[in-house]
Amino acid sequence: MTVVGNKYTVIGFRVTRAGPLALLQDAGRFGVRRLGVTQGGPADLHGWAWANRLAGNAWGTPALEVTFGGLRLVAERDLTVAVAGADLGATLEGEPLALWRPVRIREGQTLAFATPVNGLRAYLAVAGGFRAEPVLGSVSCVVREGLGGFDTRGGKLAEGDRLAVGEGSGASVAERGMPETAEIDYRQPARLALLPGAQVGEFTGQSLYRAFNAAWRVDDRADRMGVRLTGPRLLCRLASMISEGIGLGAVQVPPDGQPIALLNDRQTIGGYPRLGALTPLAASRLAQCLPSQEVHLVAASREHALAEHRHFLASVGQG
């Protein structure tokens, strides 16, 4: 892979082991769904935002989303980084790396991610940000669509890649205060706030009761496109629908009655009835769940969801 750089960038890391899935993600690709292009961006907005915040970066700065672990990087210069989101057993020179805080890395040191300990996706931000050429206004990597990433073509990291970072990324960053509630124990059953959707009234009363009172399990059919939940069968009286636009967190219910929560790399339209939509923070929480993990759907009002999101944005400097 050829890393695209310019006079404002330098090489920050060399990849010595790629792992199963490490992708470059900024805030996402917006304004292009009319072209059939999905948004991309961090599956866990919360973890991504805090990694950037702790590294001293502005909102939207590209960071690495590391899924399952297995990634190993060697620093090509002195850097300040922050890792937030999942605990993937990250180490620096073989010693445990402090999570959810800025960490200084020296040239030649090795940063490695092992396997999931708590959660599924970790976010590695570097002070100054990773750098790549944007495609349709974003560097977010969507493998299925072949867009974004360090190579502009949606490529995953590979051994030998050299990753560009912004100038000034070696500057020290003072540790920033972080609310105790910001760090999440992803091993606990997740309570996912859901805004009821346009077709919610078409589900039977018993199905609605089950939807919000039964425990659901995360199926192993889960990726950045969506997560299938297994549990009681939900019945909808709608026999057919005209396809309509699909937003982040939309919970579709296909004929088998098992909900599918759609995430960042979802399709842009869909024709299954929707129970509703997870809030962005609920979608983020679901993105950290491992297969077979228990989750619960919780009906939420628009006012509550908006207040929660505004509080989150303020906590990461966007208020």
From TrEMBL:
<dbReference type="InterPro" id="IPR003778">
    <property type="entry name" value="CT_A_B"/>
</dbReference>
<feature type="domain" description="Carboxyltransferase">
    <location>
        <begin position="34"/>
        <end position="313"/>
    </location>
</feature>
<dbReference type="GO" id="GO:0016787">
    <property type="term" value="F:hydrolase activity"/>
</dbReference>
<keyword id="KW-0067">ATP-binding</keyword>
<keyword id="KW-0378">Hydrolase</keyword>
<protein>
    <submittedName>
        <fullName>Biotin-dependent carboxylase-like uncharacterized protein</fullName>
    </submittedName>
</protein>
<dbReference type="InterPro" id="IPR029000">
    <property type="entry name" value="Cyclophilin-like_dom_sf"/>
</dbReference>
<dbReference type="Pfam" id="PF02626">
    <property type="entry name" value="CT_A_B"/>
</dbReference>
<keyword id="KW-0547">Nucleotide-binding</keyword>
<dbReference type="InterPro" id="IPR052708">
    <property type="entry name" value="PxpC"/>
</dbReference>
<dbReference type="GO" id="GO:0005524">
    <property type="term" value="F:ATP binding"/>
</dbReference>
